[in-house]
Specification:
This protein is of the alpha/beta class. The chain folds into 3 domains: 4-109 and 239-300, FAD/NAD(P)-binding domain, CATH 3.50.50; 112-234, FAD/NAD(P)-binding domain, CATH 3.50.50; 322-377, Enolase-like, domain 1. Helix content is 23%, strand content 30%. The chain contains 10 helices and 26 strands. The strands form 8 sheets. A 5-stranded parallel beta sheet has the order 5-2-1-9-20, with helices on one face. Strands 22-23-26-25-24 form a 5-stranded antiparallel beta sheet, with helices on both faces. Strand 11 (144-148), helix 5 (152-163) and strand 12 (167-172) form a beta-alpha-beta unit. Helix 1 (11-23) packs parallel to helix 9 (286-300).
Length: 378
């Protein structure tokens, strides 16, 4: 019997393996990853510096130990070049691999904004442990940091690095922090608390040039102003890795399109995590990935089931001004309503029928997250 092959050693891939092993200790599993395969929590990358954790300190379980504990074959540092759907085989740098079922847990790549200037290729991004190790090394000689992007990851890094004593500048073409997740009155609540830590905000503009200086970089902004920084970190978002699936002729849109059974347009190939678009939605957060992983494990074990997502608020790790939000779909018709304002914001989104579809809690109101989630579920 050919194994179930899982491509990817992030939260999605490892959740499937671990949950499947709870159900079935005998089914053969091979995990293929292009990195070392160590198990860690990716969300900790954006708040680890102030906790004095290096890359090694973030590892929860070494890859070899995971393979032994969960009884699977590990192929680390292995590139997958192509999927041969007709023969149910993979062309890899470790040779040809045959599969019974294939799980794509490929993750996503950082979006790169094209820049002018002789230092344009020196922008850093942090998407895995190796990236974080590189950032830690660069930070040893840095005092000032410019962050491209005022979204979730940008704000988390800004809080973490400013708390650690760095001078942080956040540059974003939007009008306020976390603009893709929440309305303006709530997003602007973060401005003051993070500014007190040492974060300077630059909204309504972007970096157009990045040039080397004797001690760092000169950043020329689209509005004509300029900044000096020792290091530039890009946090403008992620793009699902769909190229391998696309080359294999699988149906793709923003992500690899799958149904409620996590099955792609090929009955033997499944996808989940950052690379997947599940029934029209890309859900790149921890709780949806874990729910999908548990459901897929049952499906791979022969159960007739579907993934069901409960209300899953997103917690933004900005201790200077905590945030919990249940995001609203981009195409949802309705309006945000203010319930309370003070040292934070409490807002809900109601649709045209006045049914609750989302909420945001910041600052003093964030402790009401569970209560609000129950209201939303009801």
């Amino acid at each position: 019997m050919n194994p179930i092959i899982v491509l990817g050693s992030g939260l999605a891939g490892y959740t499937v393996v671990r949950e499947l092993r709870k159900l079935n200790r005998d089914i053969p599993i091979t995990l293929v990853t292009r990195d070392g395969g160590d198990y860690y929590s990716k969300p900790t990358l954006s708040n680890a510096f102030a906790q004095h954790k290096d890359a090694a300190g973030l590892v929860l379980t070494r890859a070899a130990d995971m393979a032994q504990q969960q009884n699977f074959t590990l192929l680390a540092h292995t590139e997958v070049r192509a999927i041969n759907r007709e023969n149910k085989q993979l062309d890899t740098s470790a040779g040809t691999l045959s599969y019974d079922k294939l799980v794509l847990a490929l993750g996503a790549d950082p979006i790169r904004i094209p820049l002018q200037g002789d230092a344009a290729d020196e922008v850093l991004s942090v998407n895995d442990l190796d990236d974080y190790a590189k950032l830690r090394e660069k930070l040893n000689a840095a005092k000032s940091i410019a962050i491209m992007g005022g979204g979730l990851i940008g704000c988390e890094f800004a809080n973490d690095l400013a708390h650690a004593g760095f001078a942080v500048s956040v540059i974003d073409p939007g009008a306020y922090p976390l603009a893709s997740l929440m309305p303006e009155p709530a997003g602007k609540q973060l401005l003051g608390p993070l500014a007190k830590l040492g974060v300077s905000w630059h909204f309504g503009t972007s970096i157009s040039r990045m040039d080397k200086t004797a001690n760092g970089y000169t950043l020329t902004l689209a509005d004509g102003s300029s900044l000096q920084a020792d290091l530039v970190l890009s946090a403008v978002g992620l793009r699902p890795r769909i190229a391998l699936a696309q080359q294999a002729g699988l149906s793709v849109n923003r992500g690899i399109t799958v149904n409620a059974q996590l099955c792609s347009s090929d009955a033997h190939i499944y996808a989940l995590g950052d690379c997947a678009e599940i029934e029209g939605k890309v859900q790149p957060f921890v709780l949806p990935i874990m729910h999908a992983g548990r459901a897929l494990a049952r499906i791979l074990n022969g159960e007739d089931t579907s993934v069901i997502f409960p209300v899953m608020p997103v917690v933004v790790k900005t201790p200077a001004h905590p945030v919990a939000v249940s995001p609203v779909a981009r195409d949802e018709i309705g309006a945000w309503q203010e319930l309370a304002m003070g040292n934070g914001a409490k807002m809900v989104f109601a649709d045209a029928a006045n049914k609750l579809r989302g909420f945001v809690l910041t600052g003093e109101f964030v402790g009401e997250r569970n209560e609000m989630a129950k209201r939303l579920a009801g």
